[in-house]
Amino acid sequence: MQESLGLTMAEVLQLPELKGIELVAGRNGLDRIVTDVSVLEVPFGFRRWLRGNELLLSTLHAQDDPLRSQVQLVEELDAAGVAGFALHPGLYGVRPYEPALARADELAFPFLLLPEHFPYARVIHAVLSEMLNRQAQTLRRSEEVLRALLDRVRNGATAQSLISDLVDLLERPIALLTRRGLPLAAAWPSGQADLLAQLLAPGEGRPGVDLVPPHLRSSTHEHGYMVDTPLEYDGLRLTQTSVIIQAFGQVLGFLVTWDHPRPVEGWERLALRHAATALALAELRGNSDAAGTTRAYEELLELLARRDPANVDLASRRAVHLGIDLRQPRFVLVIEPDRWPRGTFGRLSLGAEPWSQRLLNTLRTLLWDQQGEAMAITRGDHIVALLRVPDTVASSDSDRWAFDTSEALRARLLEYGFHVTIGLSGACSGARQLMRGIEEAEQAAWIGTRLLGPGATYASEHLWFYNTLVQARRHGCMDPGWRRLIRTLAAEDEKYGGQLLRTLDVFLDCQQSFADAARRLYVHPNTVRYRVDKVREILGPRTLEDPTLRVALHLAIKAARLFGGLKDVEPDGQAAWLDAGNAGDSSSGDSSSGTA
């Protein structure tokens, strides 16, 4: 249904000038919309002159058989989409017949009876005047929305900020979808997040819901084309209003909202059209303004990610040209996907866009909304991004702020269907520190995933000891003592299905609490006790009682888990630390092997 600037039949009956008009049938149809008033005084062939949504006035004096013709008239007017019919007794004294009234009730077709002294002009003037007044108010209000949105576009507003402004104006949830139906931006009034959570957030084991009506995907529609479609998901029944956003014949996306918590009204529908225009302008302006800037950001990050000291001065000069002060503290984020999407983006169709590009685009949008700067690039199987510390955050609080912000970004990415692990560097100022920070963040993500598992944020400063182990191994300075320390235990571990090292690791993590370790391992405490006793038999009774031996053993197990086994690795000076951690092992000297 397109937007209506008319009146409902109920509102027509409430006009003060029309007091005295009697509703004699069709009370259930008072929500029909009146957009015009017309007079009918021909006995047949009148349907060619009807457009729908009229309030028709007639004396019915030209009808040969008033009883039969009134029933037929009601049926034909209802079929033609007429809003209602008003009978004027006039000079001829024609009255409504009961069969016609009964049929009007069945069809929920409003049937009115005018007082004998009512001239047609009084009805026409009252209805059209009220419609014109309302239309003027509606147009004025929608124009105010358009001016406000265009001002925001001129001031460089993002799509997300425009959507947020529109939500404040309309007080209903609104989403901006790409042409493939992926959520690009969304916002909702306070207390209405559940609706978007059901429609946009990922759902495990639930089928996707396509929010773009199939016939809207074609390019034959004009910009601002609006359509209402029913939507049902998990027992939730809604009517979705979709507006096409188009520029130069190309569909850019769709602006969608729902009849929640109330139907979409006339002025709101015009406001949605205006918002589509503003979003199209913002997209065009953003493409022209941001294309060069985005590429320049990418080139700057590429320079930093190479970690070549010779590029420090070049990176610093490029940052100055871009208006970026690298002396302002920044944290490096390395974002790795934990699992790959399999054909669905939460509940939405993925389309053919590569997962890495979708993740990168989503991250850039979130970073831009958070800090007005979106510096992120894809590097292999992960993404490198910079997080600028706001001036309002004290230096003593910057580490906590960066960790909390990273966790918030990870949660938002999860809402869009991306399960990721984030490695976080320390605070970096200047190009040289940022180069080291990229390595720190990559290392933090790798260490955290191997030791603690994916799906979390790992700060480099929290893993300082393991960072030392990795650097020592990378540079060929790794003492093989850790491998010798657990060689015997690892050999015996194979007889117990690989459970001794795992149990001992968790037992020491839990400060030698059998109950806590059992809960972590999902076994009975006696099982943990039995396995720990076996360790004491293999390594000697003093091993777990001596604090020095206990710590050394615990760290040896961590090193074995970190480096993927007990074989020594010949360091490759040209390989990155990550390659060293995953490379095939060639042992020398002590050649014992096993898995931990």
Describe this structure in words.
Helix content is about 45%, strand content about 15%. With about 600 residues, the chain is an alpha+beta fold. The protein has a 5-stranded mixed sheet, with helices on both faces. Strands 9-8-12-11-10 form a 5-stranded antiparallel sheet, sandwiched between helices. A 5-stranded mixed sheet has the order 16-17-13-18-19, sandwiched between helices. The protein is elongated and about 115 Å long.
The class by helix and strand makeup works out as alpha+beta
Helix percent band? 40-55%
The proportion of residues in beta strands is 15-25%
Average residue-wise pLDDT:
77
| Low-confidence segments | 202-207, 287-292, 341-353, 566-596
Strand order of the largest sheet: 2-7-6-5-4
Termini gap: 65 Å
What does the radius of gyration come to? 36 Å
How many helices? The count is 19
Largest sheet: 5 strands, mixed
Sum up the overall morphology in one term.
elongated
Total strand count, please?
19
